[in-house]
Amino acid sequence: MGCVFSRRKRNKNGTSAPGSEQPTQYSWDQRRKEDISDLIVQGLTGQSKTHRPGVLCGRPFCVQACCDSDIVVLDHSAAVSVDDCKKCRITLGPVSGSVFLRNCKDCTVLVACQQFRARDCSKLLVLLYCATQPIIEACAGIEFACYQCDYPELASQFQAAGLDVFNNNWSNVHDFTPIVGEQNWTILTSLVPGYHPIPCNPSQPDCCDETWTEPLFSIDQQRSIVPATLGRAYRLIGPICVVIVLSGADTDGPVRTFINEMVRCGNILVQMKHAPLSDSHACRLLENKASNLMDTSRDPSFFLEFNGENVVESAKDLAESLFKNFTVRNLSFFVVSL
């Protein structure tokens, strides 16, 4: 039986056309079928697996039980878990959420993420960008170095993941299970010589071919999308200063140029921050100049800490000569000696 008010399609002579009713289409029937195999890499031994840009598109990703293998993900993802891997080299694109490493040993991991967690791991080299404080638990022999990487899609992937390249807290590590008299983790001030995260073996079809070798993919400090810092644990030698750059939009380019020139002149970029300048910080750092900034825009400011001989004079001279050549609205800078 049916509703007396239901309508049926009729042909020209007024009778119902048999078989003319279309089946109901639901939204879940029209969804694109996902290939789950793209989201999991497991059980590799002595092999290579590569995900090129556009494969994950912000979806989560898992690596499980791999040994002596190269896993390369040149795409952004929502979250990544790496479990039970040994002697692997893992390269991950920007991750908008958390990266979890569990029960891994003798691995090298290059990753940019919002949160980093490692548990029950040993002998890891982690080349890290982390927007928050990295955390380890029940780990030993973990070496951290600053993230250094560049390839054509990386800038847009950082943006898609919501990560700011100037907010890297890689060296601010917290150990939940410290051992008295022992150091479970260390900070490296330079990249390990000879390390290259992109395997080049044409005999393996899943491996990155020659189109992803230099110059497209690079871990050179000078080309890295994330400026290289030596971290909070760096032993300062000589004077230090903080350069504060206040401005509206479109300041990234001038600031990056300033950093490159300061480093080229022999100065060390210790750490950096991209955040609004609060009234309290303005009063503490800028003292009598702070009153002129209370009513300025609350756009994020750049805080760059440098170390080196004559670093204060070098920063002042370079900033004055460099920033005046950029047509950036409301750009101003301050060099503070600490």
TrEMBL record:
One GO biological process term: post-Golgi vesicle-mediated transport
Lipidation (N-myristoyl glycine): 2
Classification via InterPro entries: C-CAP_CF_C-like, CAP/MinC_C, CARP_motif, NDK-like_dom_sf, Tubulin-bd_cofactor_C_dom, XRP2
Cell compartment(s), UniProt: Cell membrane
Keywords: Cell membrane, GTP-binding, GTPase activation, Lipoprotein, Membrane, Myristate, Nucleotide-binding, Palmitate
Domain C-CAP/cofactor C-like positions: 23-178
Compositional bias annotation for Basic residues: 1-12
Polar residues composition-biased segments: 13-28
Binding site for GTP: 97-98, 114-117
UniProt xrefs under PROSITE patterns: C_CAP_COFACTOR_C (PS51329)
One GO cellular component term: periciliary membrane compartment
UniProt topology in membrane: Lipid-anchor
One Pfam family per UniProt: TBCC
Lipidation (S-palmitoyl cysteine): 3
One Gene Ontology term of the molecular function aspect: GTPase activator activity
Region ranges (Disordered): 1-28
Family stated for the protein in its record: Belongs to the TBCC family.
Its job: Acts as a GTPase-activating protein (GAP) for tubulin in concert with tubulin-specific chaperone C, but does not enhance tubulin heterodimerization.
Protein name: Protein XRP2
